[in-house]
Specification:
The protein has helices at residues 19-30, 50-55, 59-70, 87-96, 122-132, 162-183, and strands at 5-11, 35-39, 73-78, 108-114, 137-138, 144-146. It is an alpha/beta fold and 185 residues long. Strands 1, 2, 3, 4, 5 and 6 form a six-stranded parallel β-sheet that branches. Helix 1 links the parallel strand 1 and strand 2 (35-39). The chain is globular, with a radius of gyration of 16 Å. The chain binds flavin mononucleotide. The site of flavin mononucleotide has 16 residues, from helix 1.
Length: 185
């Protein structure tokens, strides 16, 4: 029997009512038996500063790096800001990509996006995939792209669109398969 895949989920949006964070909450609900997902809040991560890093990683960054290092895989939910992914996300990736033992390198990753527009954050995903291709091992299919997100969540921030819930389930199963394949000795 394969062991449970331990996944950390991060959202590139810090706002309370974030649809992207809502996608992560839905993923917790929809996780298959062999995947456990824990959401890590990026709110306390300071802006990247190389001077600070050389003195020592700030506590919230240390916590993020340690959690990422101990996880088998990463799940990212990204908003689209001005046709790309958010600065919050890029900042977290930058902190996680620095020595010693950058915890992001070579890790399996799955991506989702939600936006209120018609394109569901596809441009954010394309930019994100471009940089993750050089750092991590992204799952390619299925693509979870949630357009008109305001129509797909209820008043409590719960994802109620069944098609999207199905895609998230499939993505999580693909992440389990991909992680187990990469970890096979
Ligand atoms: C600075 C900023 C730029 C945005 N640019 C885009 C954009 O390029 N494309 C898009 O579809 N939505 C854009 N939006 C709208 C977001 O899709 C919307 O605010 C969405 O709810 C953000 O994700 P969240 O709900 O997880 O916070 C932008 C929002 C902000 C705050």
């Amino acid at each position: 029997m394969q062991r449970i895949v331990d996944v950390i989920g991060i959202s590139g949006s810090l706002r309370k009512g974030s649809y992207n964070t809502g996608l992560l909450r839905a993923a917790v609900e929809l996780a298959p038996e062999d995947l456990q997902l824990q959401i890590f809040d990026l709110s306390n991560i300071p802006l990247y500063n190389e001077d600070v890093r050389t003195v020592g990683y700030p506590e919230p960054v240390k916590e993020f790096r340690d959690r990422l290092a101990s996880a088998d895989a990463l799940l990212i939910a990204t908003p689209e800001y001005n046709h790309s992914f958010s600065g919050v996300l890029k900042n977290a990736i930058d902190w996680a990509s620095r020595p010693p033992n950058p915890p992001i390198i070579g890790k399996p990753v799955a991506i989702m996006s939600a936006s209120m527009g018609n394109f569901g954050g596809i441009r954010a995903q394309m930019d994100l995939r471009l940089i993750l291709d050089g750092l991590m091992r992204p799952v390619n299919q299925p693509e979870v792209i949630v357009a008109k997100a305001q129509e797909k969540f209820d008043a409590n921030g719960r994802l109620i669109d069944e098609t999207t819930r199905g895609f998230i389930k499939e993505l999580l199963m693909a992440l389990v398969d991909w992680t187990q394949l990469l970890n096979r000795k």
